[in-house]
Design brief:
With 206 residues, the protein is α+β, with helices and mostly antiparallel strands. Helix 2 runs antiparallel to helix 3. Strands 1-9-10-11-3-6 form a six-stranded antiparallel beta sheet, with no helix packed on it. Strands 2, 4, 5, 7 and 8 form a five-stranded antiparallel beta sheet that branches. The chain has two domains: 119 residues, Jelly Rolls (Sandwich), CATH 2.60.120.400; 68 residues, no CATH class. The N terminus is likely disordered. The termini are far apart. The protein is elongated. Strand 4 and strand 5 form a beta hairpin. It has three helices and eleven strands.
């Protein structure tokens, strides 16, 4: 839905990609004022004043959770002194984001001094560790006890060192000549199997 004539800040929350998609080629002349836009409330990394050109300029803005932040378009009248004035805008919401068309009072309704598009950010899937999983530090796997996701564990040397050696051997086997690779992988499997059996004995016997 489009809203016309609004001079207020356009509010958003979360993440948006704010891009300049249109600029009046005569901006700064008698018939087209200079333009700029302001970001407020998104934090020091994003808040500030940005020039209304060139077309193609893009700004990635990430707000703080659900706290709103805003975009305000301003223009400077050619003979109105140094003051910047909030521009009337036409706001159109689309499935991809929000278009903001800045139209000063003297504009033809079909033209715009500045066009911004505030696109929704692409959301990446969030990986969650299953509740029955945990993490183990590399030091625990190699040669000693240490931190894990479920608390510290005591040293299991030399069993985990043996286990890590089997993994290293399996990794190195990938670099061998194809005639030797199978034998090296078989040896690595035996090393890992033997070390795993020793670890199980330690766990089950306390």
């Amino acid at each position: 839905m489009a809203k016309k004539g609004d001079r207020m800040a356009i509010k958003f929350s979360g993440c948006r990609n704010v891009s300049i998609t249109g600029v009046d080629p005569f901006a700064g002349g008698i018939d087209a004022p200079l333009t700029r836009f302001k970001i407020d409330g998104a934090g020091p990394a994003y808040d500030g004043v940005y020039p209304g050109s060139p077309a193609g300029f893009s700004l990635h803005v990430v707000g703080h959770g659900n706290t709103p932040w805003s975009v305000t378009v301003q223009y400077k009248q050619p003979f109105g002194g140094a003051a910047w004035v909030n521009s009337p805008v036409q706001v159109t919401n689309t499935p991809l984001g929000t278009e903001i068309r800045a139209i000063d009072p003297g504009d033809n309704p079909q033209s715009a001094d500045l066009v911004l598009f505030c696109a929704f950010c692409e959301q990446l899937p969030i990986f969650r560790v299953p509740s029955d999983s945990t993490w183990v530090s590399w030091g625990v796997q190699v040669d000693a006890g240490g931190p894990t996701g479920r608390g510290p564990v005591p040293p299991w040397s030399p069993f985990l060192r043996d286990f890590a050696s089997g993994l290293a051997l399996a990794e190195a086997a990938q670099l061998l000549h194809t005639d030797l690779r199978a034998s090296a992988l078989e040896l690595a499997a035996k090393q890992i199997s033997a070390a795993s059996a020793d670890i199980v004995k330690v766990l089950t016997n306390g």
